[in-house]
Amino acid sequence: MESPHDPCVRVRGARENNLRDVDVDVPRDVLAVFTGVSGSGKSSLAFGTIYAEAQRRYFESVAPYARRLIHQVGAPHVGEITGLPPAVSLQQRRSAGSSRSSVGTVTTISNLLRMLWSRAGTYPEGAERLDSDSFSPNTAVGACPACHGLGRVHRTTEELLVPDPSLTIREGAIAAWPGAWQGKNLRDVLDALGYDVDRPWRELDPADREWILFTEETPTVTVEPVREAGRVQRPYQGTYQSARRYVLKTFADSKSDALRAKAARFLASEPCPVCHGTRLKPEALAVTFAGRTIAETVRLPLTALAAMLREAGGGNTARVLVEDLLPRVETVIGLGLGYLSLDRATPTLSAGELQRLRLASQLRSGLFGVVYVLDEPSAGLHPADTEALLDVLHGLKQAGNSVFVVEHHLTVMRHADWLVDVGPGAGEHGGEVLHSGPVGGLQEVTASVTRDYLFGGPRPRPAPPREPTGWVRLRGVRKHNIEGVDVRVPLGVLTAVTGVSGSGKSTLVPDVLAGALDARARGEDPGPDAPYTALEGAEGVQRVVRVDQRPIGRTPRSNLATYTGLFDTVRKVFAATDEAKARGYGAGRFSFNNSGGRCETCQGEGFVSVELLFLPSTYAPCPDCHGARYNPDTLAVRYRGRNIADVLGLTVESAADFFADVPAVARSLRTLLDVGLGYLRLGQPATELSGGEAQRIKLATELQRVHRGHTAYILDEPTTGLHPADVDVLLRQLNRLVDAGDTVVVVEHDMAVVASADWVVDLGPGGGDRGGHLVAEGRPEDVAKAEGSRTAAYLRAALG
To answer: Which of 235, 289, 747, 771 has its CA 20 to 30 Å from the CA of residue 721?
Structure first.
């Protein structure tokens, strides 16, 4: 029988994903780090087993009706777990929130701030006191009625909708109209309404142009199609909608990203002319506290907000509210996020920033006796900010909680009370617990890859820095917190851009630099609104490739094989077999997206949704194909003893052996192996991949292309989610690009990568309004000596 006073969480027989019947004991009330190379099984143990079992037990105590409202993680494959308290999970996942979700709403600081203005604000003489909801742009009583609390309005103009007025409507003058039949239908309806569709747009009557583009009327008329040889076309009832109406409806309602992006090209977004971007009604904007409106206050960096609150006066009510509010703000600042403002929309935050905001909320929750399971809380943190993170993690532990962290950061590992190392390799080569105990005990485990990095000292430097083949110079960069900076980036080498969180790295590199180089490579004029005054030396860059951590697909239908293109060749291989030829099957038969070859019961998904009366809906393997995705006739075709579903179930490593003599497939698989993704399955859904895995898949896809000349590769924190051993693998591939004559620029916090770079650009010195300056630039050895650089000391340590 389980003891309520068991000092350990005891896992027996864990078999989730690649775990090999794992038994492990982890003490409670400690900071325990789970580590291992990417794909080793550490997340399967921490999240897929321990957290999943805690959630399953919680759901068993919830009424069946309530369970339907909660996302359930499913029962883990494990023999038993004892000594397990309730669990709270904080994972690395990008925000799916709308623009109404912000730093203030995630941390709940906005609630207290609105209360402060409502109860302790200075009101105009004779004004009624407002409820706190009146200070929220997300409520009907507070939102500006003109923009519905969004702060911006979308408008369109004749110039946007009709970029070339010399064309006729039949020739496509109205560029905003849809293509294919729908656009032809609108043209024919206009013709039937009596408008001249064969006269140049600029020659039409201005009143007619106004009606065609902007009318809110939707008249229906009988359309007599123009007869075409060999086609029978009958009259039909066609309904007209203006170009503006079509664009706005598509932008607001379309589920297609491509259609929404096209519609956005014909819209001009501008601050609301009524509230001027403040999002609130005039009554709320008339109330001040410490001389500021609430709209002005939420735009302040949190560091400035904290300073304002410390100096604020006021009566007893203000003092009580500020005493509650200020520690919440300081907690977020302590996590290295002082550069954020409360009105910053959550979709613009990185996964690491969002997780730390949730962590800040937990610190003030007062919970104790629970297990916090965190996914790389150090992601996106400069080494200078990691110390503050450790204070937070130890604070959670001292409050009476257990803190289980999946982590690759060596500093976090060294400060752990307990270390669980999973490995030794990835995928089928991992899944074993190599060490579970105090950190120092890992030094005796020779099979551990982690051991060499944790106790081996600084990694050796590669060959001497390479010499640039040229220089790109950006002058007068002005965007966000960067004000008038001149920066130079060498061509033909590896450049690392560093700085604390919020110093302006992502603004300078993926945003301004990549945009400027891309525009120059395409021959486009950056225009007067360009965030820089001059770009020099970019003639040597013919192509720009941004390799980011966005998902490679949004549905389970998108997977590793389809994204890299290797599945096209695999399907052709199956179509070339004697059995497929005898049955008359082409390559399309082996696509799970096409009818004919796929299982129609699950539409090629491999699973079906099961609706249960009074119980939550659940997903189960398809009863007909049992998860294979294809129908029996398709699965009957085999290549070297495997059907198409078997091949999708292979790991990259296994598939590389299986297709070794198929050059097109082997080349794709080899590049995936080169970036350390041999453990992934070919059919692994895009929704199951981490941001780091998605980024390396994109890099592998680029590596397999035929080299096309002088390319600039822009990567934003490519080592996020990587074990130090995997960082070395990634560095080899980045150097391979440089050796081929390309330019690589990375935004990076990993000092091992920075030390291996040929050139370093350090921004800072702080974040937010205290950043945006060029602190140092030069060889790693030079930047390591720079005064005033928060990066320098950590870079010196990495250089040894």
So the answer is: 771
Q: What residue ranges define each of the domains in the chain, with the CATH number in brackets?
A: 8-94+366-455 (3.40.50.300), 103-151+272-337 (1.20.1580.10), 155-271 (1.10.8.280), 470-551+706-799 (3.40.50.300), 560-688 (1.20.1580.10)
Answer for the pair 87, 50: CB distance below 8 angstroms, yes or no.
Answer: yes
Cα separation, 5 vs 22, in Å, equals 23
Cβ-based neighbours of 464, under 8 Å, separated by 6 or more: none
Helix (H, G, I), strand (E, B) or coil at 763: strand
Those residues of the chain that have pLDDT short of 50 are 1-2, 94-96, 229, 613-616
Contact (Cβ atoms closer than 8 angstroms) between residue 577 and residue 589 = no
Which value, to the nearest 10 degrees, does the dihedral of the CA atoms of residues 64, 67, 72, 74 take?
-10
Q: Which amino acid is at 498?
A: T
Q: What is the pTM of this model?
A: 0.80
Q: Where are the alpha helices (DSSP H) in 73-108?
A: 103-107
* Token pair listed for 562: 């389809």
Q: Which two tokens stand for residue 752?
A: 């091992």
Cβ contacts of 17 within 8 Å, gap of 6 or more: 41, 44, 48, 431
CA-closest candidate to residue 781, choices 761, 799, 762, 763: 799
Can you give the pLDDT at residue 682?
95
User: What tokens were used for 362?
Assistant: 């937990």
Residue 70, classed as helix, strand or coil, is coil
How does DSSP classify residue 426?
A: S
Q: Which amino acid is at 289?
A: F
Inter-residue contact 744 to 494 (CB < 8 Å): yes
Tokens of 292: 């500021």
Q: Which residue has the tokens 């803190």?
A: 403
Residues 6+ apart with CB under 8 A from 243: 156, 161, 174, 176, 177, 212, 213, 214, 266
In the DSSP assignment, the letter for residue 11 is E
What is the pLDDT at residue 61?
A: 76
Cis peptide upstream of residue 765 (ω within 30 degrees of 0): yes
Q: What is the pLDDT of residue 783?
A: 96
The Cα 505–Cα 336 span in angstroms is 15
The two beta strands, 31-35 and 152-155, are unpaired
Q: How far is CA 601 from the centre of its chain?
A: 33
- What local confidence, expressed as pLDDT, does residue 180 receive? 73
Q: Tokens representing 479? A: 């965007």
pLDDT at 610: 60
Q: Which amino acid is at 638?
A: R
The pLDDT value recorded for residue 95 is 44
- 418-423, strands of its sheet edge to edge: 87-90, 371-375, 402-406, 31-35, 418-423, 432-437
Q: CB atoms < 10 A from the CB of 752, how many?
A: 18
For Cα atoms 54, 60, 66, give the angle at the middle one, nearest 5 degrees.
Answer: 110
Helices (H), 33-175: 42-45, 52-60, 64-67, 103-107, 109-120, 158-161
Q: How far is CA 271 from CA 140, 278, 279, 297, 348, in A?
A: 19, 9, 9, 18, 18
Instruction: Count how many Cα atoms sit within 13 Å of the Cα of residue 660 in the half-sphere of its side chain.
Output: 4
**The residue to which tokens 């393997």 are assigned:** 621
**Contact between residue 730 and residue 696 where contact means Cβ atoms under 8 Å apart:** yes
pLDDT of residue 283: 95
End-to-end CA, the chain: 53
Token pair of 797, please?
């340590």
CA separation for the pair 538, 712 (Å, rounded): 10
- Please answer whether residues 104 and 653 qualify as being in contact, where contact means their C-beta atoms are separated by less than 8 angstroms: no
Cα–Cα distance between 725 and 165 in angstroms, integer?
59
Find out whether 412 and 375 touch, Cβ atoms under 8 Å.
no
Position 613 scores a pLDDT of 47
Tokens of 782: 């030079």
Q: Is 258 exposed, middle or buried (0-12, 13-18, 19+ CB in 10 A)?
A: exposed
Q: How far apart are CA 491 and CA 495, in angstroms?
A: 9
